[in-house]
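== Item description ==
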Amino acid sequence: DAFRYAFGDSAVGPASYSAFLSIFSAAGCISDDLLDGAAENGIETGKSLFYYANILLGNQGDSKGIALFNHLKAVESRMSPDDPRKPDLRAAVDGLRSIYDLSQSARNAIIKAPANKVRTVVAMENWWGPNRQKVSWREILTGHRSVVINLGTSEDGMVLGEEQKSEVASILMFALEHAI
């Protein structure tokens, strides 16, 4: 829904919306420890959920998306039944099956629109990356904190373009509205 908020209601149509949810549900489950052994397929650790969604959406090539899907399936199958992450990872893998059990051309048809949206956001990986200091909206709201959100030059010197600023601001405002 954040992408609909940022890009408009028609940005992600009904056919792609389900795929979009499956991709982001899976990307949200990914942590560095689940990626042990994935580097051989060029999948990096320490990245944001947008990075992993970008891979699953085929923006780094279909074979890399398939490799990440297969890796997640293998991790889930080896995971202890007592691992508290297992139900979420199982649901994520099941959701990805609706995309990755399709032919490449059928998969491309449903992920094309979301892939284009994520491509622009993942270009700002340093903004979303897990190593960037962050405070949640919940912490801000419950702690009655005053904050400044800098959409200008980042610590590493990156300057967002006007379109990127608008997209980041929209995603942040959606998250704030959701937190309220």
Observations:
- The two ends are 15 Å apart (CA to CA).
- The mean pLDDT is 85.
